[in-house]
Fold this sequence. Notes:
There is one protein chain. The two termini are 29 Å apart. The chain contains four helices and nine strands. It is globular, with a radius of gyration of 16 Å. The longest helix is centred in the middle third of the chain and has 24 residues, at 71-94. The protein has helices at 2-8, 71-94, 99-109, 125-128, and strands spanning 32-36, 49-61, 64-69, 112-116, 119-123, 134-137, 145-147, 154-156, 161-165. Residues 1-30 are annotated as: Disordered.
Amino acid sequence: MPDRITDSRRPPAPGEPGIPGDVPGPGGRGQQGVFTGAWLAEGCDCHPYTAGYAGRLVRSGAGGCVFRTSRAVAGAVVAGYQHALLGLVFEHTGQGAYLGDAWLAALEDHPSITWLGPLIIADRRLCTGDDAAVDITVPDAVGLYTIGWGLSWERVDTAAVHTVHRTPHT
């Protein structure tokens, strides 16, 4: 949370299309990058990852990266994750589970990530067994979202990703 407060006081500097500006700091903080995760590692023959998301590094550690990005890119993150979760639900129904049971089985392994107005809700309660494992992401003063949610995001080379979601220049 302190990162969002600090960053919200400073308008973004110009940067690569779709990657919000920031001043690089210690540990790579503020550096532009493309972020992806193991759940997206079903790439085509020419790319190991199906999708990546443009942003600026907030922090990285043993649990993965946290990054800031635009609303459009955050929307692509949520839509992509919902698509993957829906695939798991269908996989469970294909194995004979009722739809409600399939939904719960998918949530036992993966969080539910959804929009509620301008908020992004990442609900990890079923997959972690922790009743408090809900992250609510609000846009900062310049409209950027901080993405992490306890998922193992990693920064990768753009060439490793089939589709990079960015915000075009307006």
